[in-house]
Amino acid sequence: MKRTLFALSLGALVALGWGAAANAAGSCRMLQIGELPLAADGPQVSVEAQVNGHPVRMIVDTGSAATLLFRKGAEQLGLPARALKAVRFYGVGGGDEGAMAYVSEFKLANMVMRNFNVIVTGRGSIGGAQGILGAGFLLQSDVEFDLPGGKVRFFKPEGCAGDQVVYWGKAYSVAPMVGDGTRKIAITVKLNGTPVVAQMDTGTGMSVVTTATAAAVGLKPGAEGVKAAGLITGVGRARVSTFVGTFPTFAFGDETIGNAKLRIADLFHADTEMQLGSNIPVAAADTPRMLLGADFFRAHRVYVSRGQRKVYVSYMGGPVFETREAPPPAGAGAAPTPAR
């Protein structure tokens, strides 16, 4: 029976002998069931893998629900893609048709999966990567994103409560998750004191606030101090104009940043479709108001607790938000989502 890459299971990691207990207080046991070393070079958060014996780079992308190959990556690997009827995937820059390709063998760290189908979408590639390792795989258990240490670790806590999962013993901030955390990491942050639902998206190089959200808290493109800052791209064809503005405060739990300089963009304006019987375009998928990108992750150690539905972060140093003039391409941004 052929499977899709959604079926990649962390249970296989335990069967392969992955498992170590991290130090924790009292009866709390942090059983580590997997670890992925991150690629040391390139602007994207990525891992090295193999498809049918060929080396590939996969972007670690919590902003994409699906694990997938880019169309260009499938072509490079010699994998014929079969079109999926009436299915589109959406992200920054709009949508693209979906396809499926058959993979004989996929190797990732100590894990091997064989004989399954993988989604193919996107016009080109992002940052030289052949595909995306999405939230459907990454969020099967508790997960720690230790970008400063170059690792992603998977955990099964036993007898742990509250901040016992912050086993590294450093000061932390915590935010409750919005939703069940199975396909995305959504949390509530505050911009200028206003609660905003943000998606934590390792696939996007820099954190971005949507133009509507920025306007709602007092910053509009064209206003004093808001400057044009180039274009970004994602899974869709459209290129998106960005701006940079300074927000008096940004808060993640108890962590507050004053005069936070952030990108502003109408990220998902192209993510619309025409409903049957209507000439009015509507949003094709539920989209976040802000993306906390790889820049935020690089400055923090991040622990996502599925059981507690909380996200713990410890500031590790360096700039939290990156706003340089020539940004790396954004990742898939909002999770690629089949059209309704």
Task: Describe the structure in your own words.
The chain is mainly beta and 340 residues long. The protein folds into two domains: 33-136, Cathepsin D, subunit A, domain 1; 171-315, Cathepsin D, subunit A, domain 1. It is built from five helices and 24 strands. It has a seven-stranded antiparallel β-sheet with strand order 2-3-12-11-23-24-13. A six-stranded mixed beta barrel has the order 4-5-10-6-9-8. A hairpin with a 2-residue loop joins β14 (186-191) and β15 (194-200). The two termini are 27 Å apart. Mean pLDDT is 82; it is low at 13-17, 270-284 and 326-340.
Features:
Cathepsin D, subunit A, domain 1; single chain; seven-stranded antiparallel sheet; 5 helices; 340 residues; mainly beta
Which architecture of the largest domain would the CATH scheme give at its second level?
Answer: Beta Barrel
The strand line-up of the biggest sheet is 2-3-12-11-23-24-13
Which CATH first-tier class of the largest domain would you pick? Mainly Beta
Number of domains: 2
Q: What's the alpha carbon Rg, rounded to whole Å? A: 20 Å
Portion in beta strands: over 45%
Give the name of the CATH superfamily of the largest domain. Acid Proteases
Helix-strand layout with pairing:
Layout: E1 3-4, H1 11-15, E2 20-22, E3 29-37, E4 46-51, E5 54-61, E6 68-70, H2 71-76, E7 82-91, E8 94-108, E9 111-121, E10 131-134, H3 135-138, E11 142-146, E12 151-158, E13 173-176, E14 186-191, E15 194-200, E16 208-210, H4 211-216, E17 227-232, E18 240-252, E19 255-265, E20 272-274, E21 281-283, E22 290-292, H5 294-298, E23 300-305, E24 310-315
Parallel strand pairs: 1-9, 5-10, 6-9, 15-22, 16-19
Antiparallel strand pairs: 2-3, 3-12, 4-5, 4-8, 6-10, 7-8, 8-9, 11-12, 11-23, 13-24, 14-15, 14-18, 16-22, 17-18, 18-19, 20-21, 23-24
